[in-house]
Amino acid sequence: MNNKTEIALRKHIKRIKKDIAERDPNSVWDKEKNKIDYKNIASLHEGRVPQYRDHGVGLPEMEMFEFDNLRDL
C-alpha cells in the first residue's frame, strides 16, 4: 500500500469517527448508521474499500460511492 492510499484511508476513518461522535446516541436511526460506519472503519483498517454487500445479504457487490477516491490510488 502506498503513502497516498494510507493517507486517504486515514482521512476517511477520521471523517467517519467524527460523524459517529456527532450523532445522537439515543436515536435508533443514528445507531443503525453507526453500525454501518463501524463496519466501514473495519474495512478501511484492512485496507479494503467498503462494499454495499458488507451491510446486507441482498445488497450489490460493489464499492460504496463515498469511497470513490480510493479506487484510483
In short:
The protein is mainly alpha-helical. It is 52% helix and 0% strand. The protein has one domain (3-70).
Structure explained in plain terms:
Helix 1 runs antiparallel to helix 2. The chain has helices spanning 3-22, 28-45. It has one domain (3-70). The longest helix is centred in the first third of the chain and has 20 residues, at 3-22. The chain is flat, with a radius of gyration of 13 Å. The termini are close together. It is built from two helices and no strands. The chain is 52% helix and 0% strand. It is mostly helical.
The H-and-E topology, N to C, reads as HH
Strand content: under 5%
| Total helical elements | 2
Unreliable segments of 5+ consecutive residues: none
Instruction: Return Rg in Å.
Output: 13 Å
Number of domains: 1
Give the overall silhouette.
Answer: flat
